[in-house]
Amino acid sequence: MCASFFSRFTRPRPNIVESPPPPSITHGAGMQIPEYRNKPYFLVASVEMGNTTTKCILTGVSLETGMSYVINKTVSMSRDIRPPKPNETVFGATLDGTPLTREAVTELVRDTLVQCHSEVHLDIQKDLDFVVRSTGVVAEMESPDQIGDFVIALANGCLVAGVPPRKMTPPMSKENQPEKLQPFSFADKVVFVGAVAGVIPPVGSTGVEMVANEMEGELAMAGIKEGAKWTGVDFRNPCISVDFGTTLDGRITTDVSPDSPNPFARTVGNFCGLAGAIPDAIVRGTGLVQARTGTALDIFGEHSVAGGLFGGGNRKVVADFVDRCHEHIDIRIVPADRDRFGRVPVNARLALESGIAMIGCDCGTNSSDMDKLLAIGAEIHKNHGMSTLNEVIDRVCARMALRLIDVAVEKGLVPRNASIGFTGRAAISGRKPEYILEGITERNLFDDPNDHLVFVDDGLARGAALMGRCMNSLGKPKNPIGGVRGGPCIMSRRIKIGK
Asked: What pLDDT does residue 201 have?
């Protein structure tokens, strides 16, 4: 038999990071206590309200090792938020049209935060160290006022749940930090300048002016960098970080010269538009989920699976459906005259003037071709069954991811020392990681593609924990996240600049 036949069995497995539970300490016969109750841990709650799910993920960072663990996760469907009451003002909606009021969002955030802590018997006021709030729902907002209402509602939910305001903002000095954090803090040696995971936001802007869900992109980048610590991949700058949630976000960062006076990488690219909303549309066409609010999660879940020799369904049939879907998927640099791309508010002209490559993903023009995907989904389910549907969705999403990387390559933003990371359900579930790794390998971007590619679950929650660490200057020079691939920690350069 030829070598290519045996290569099917020996192909490298993608680096997929799934949240490990925190270590335990054994006390007496069979009694185990979580390590975070006895040792110094930095506990961060990530509160995310997305278009599909609302989550509170409680993360514990060991201050001795710098490694992060998921202590508990509470997830609900955003479509299940209570309907507006007669005296409430609807200020926006999710991507599937679920109406939102400030009061309803506040209650949902409060309940999710309280439930997440009570399930593991932790006290919000005594045990929690920091809270980071984020949302992807701003992608469907019409104005800054609506975004402001949403941010206020998220903050109010945290306050009503009992989170003190000081646990949502950076401390003014080391003396203002809790005593357990002070021995591990560099707050008296460095100044927090807004850089997270060794990267500064787009030059001349907070990023919000360029794309509505910029903060999600920042957290995803930070979370992928943290998650990669569980693999052998040195995922530091330059890097391409892509979050494939319901909507698309992410960042592209630069390399940094060792003799550069500024140790931080610059943001030179953003991702925006649609991601998981595209497989959701295909699934809704089958009639197996709710017509307006159903998602691919309802059928296939969010975990990755290891494939056999072949995917589901007939290869030729699957390839034909994938091609037909991608005829309606528009992936490119967002034109300067567009103020929305994939329904996400953008300032493409500012991005162009700032030298930022804004790479977008749409279906038609602002989702105008979604009905075409519904029809394709109906045809697949009627004539070919679930295995073909599953395979088509995995292949469609993998090709979307690879087309995004192709655009970045065309713009010269993927050097040989870059790393590529994905998070979000539309990139890390099913066999998508396997197919993305195959595509990256075929493109010959790296000598060892698997050493430059990672897939990380709960990217936003990991990023929230890392953002909290950055705001509190809780770096680990022996286990750095900032700096460049193969290089040293940048803490000494930051301390020198501070002096």
From this structure: 81
> How far apart are the C-alpha atoms of 230 and 322, rounded to whole Å?
33
- Using CA atoms, how far apart are residues 474 and 149, in angstroms rounded to an integer? 31
Provide the CB-side half-sphere exposure for 341 (13 A, CA).
29
The residue to which tokens 């907002």 are assigned: 141
Q: What SS3 class is residue 336?
A: coil
Q: Which two tokens stand for residue 53?
A: 């799910």
Residue 276 is predicted with a pLDDT of: 94
Between CA 122 and CA 116 the distance in angstroms is 9
The single-letter DSSP state of residue 414 is -
State the residue for tokens 């595209």: 278
Q: What is the pLDDT of residues 324-345, one digit of tens each?
A: 999 999 999 999 999 999 998 8
Mean pLDDT of 352-361: 94
- Single out the residue of 31, 13, 10, 33 nearest to residue 23, CA to CA: 33
Nearest CA to 329 out of 341, 319, 339 is that of 341
Alpha-helical runs (H) found in 203-276: 214-227
Structure tokens at 312: 């589901």
- Average pLDDT of the residues in 369-376: 97
**Strand-pair partners of 484:** 237
Query: From start to end of 209-339, where are the E strands?
Result: 239-244, 247-253, 267-274, 329-333
Report d(CA 184, CA 268) in Å as an integer. 32
420 SS3 class: strand
Q: So what's the pLDDT on residue 417? A: 95
Q: Give CA–CA dist 223/220, Å, rounded.
A: 5
Do residues 42 and 472 lie in contact, with contact meaning Cβ atoms separated by under 8 Å? yes
Give the C-alpha separation, 9 to 12, whole Å.
Answer: 9
pTM of the full predicted structure?
Answer: 0.92
Residue pointed to by tokens 């925006």: 272
Please give the full DSSP string across 32-53, using - where no structure is assigned. EEEGGGTS-EEEEEEEEE-SSE
